[in-house]
Amino acid sequence: xVKGQNFNRxxxxxxxxxxxxxxxxxxxxxxxxxxxxxLHFALFTLGINTNLRASDLLAIKVSQVxxxxxxxxxxxxxQKTNKSRKINLNKKCxxxxxxxxxxxxxxxDDYLFIGQRGRLTVPYLNNLVKKWCAEINLKGNYGSHxxxxxxxxxxxxxxxxxxxxxxxxxxxATQKQTLDYLCIQPDEIRKVYANEI
Length: 197
Known about the structure:
CATH topology: hpI Integrase, Chain A
Structural class: mainly alpha
Number of helices: 10
CATH architecture: Orthogonal Bundle
Strand content: 5-15%
Order of helices and strands: HHHHEEHEEHHHHH
Shape: globular
Number of strands: 4
Number of domains: 1
Radius of gyration: 18 Å
CATH class: Mainly Alpha
Strand order of the largest sheet: 1-2
């Protein structure tokens, strides 16, 4: 291998599909891994409890979340679409945010997710998610988008949220697009073929 060459890097123009974390047991294992790091715990908790893209998650400011009650609403502008969006944060999100806010001094105009070198970046979050999944021995391809996909997968497969509602959450045009996105279409189709007539 030549210095600087990476055989794991995808070909230019190819698409990389990351997977959701599909098991509640695995999700709980990651939470236990992160429990002593309020920054990482809050990142993971907000990521899997909302369907925010990593760039939007990392753009949340302290002023948007300080004093928020469970199911309180925050407004943000999606970086990819430049559209205004409102999301509600459940109790687990609010508790993780409050723990993070109590862990260090924050100003109102600070980004919520800051490290020693300033605001966290999407590549940094991508590496964190890969590391967390590797540490609990999850096999597959994981990255920052895993958090967003985990939200939808758990909502549909475990909580039974219908696809039309998830389509609205993700702003998808078709149910097939949502199924493909959540990496559940093969399982859904396999179940159809298992039905004996």
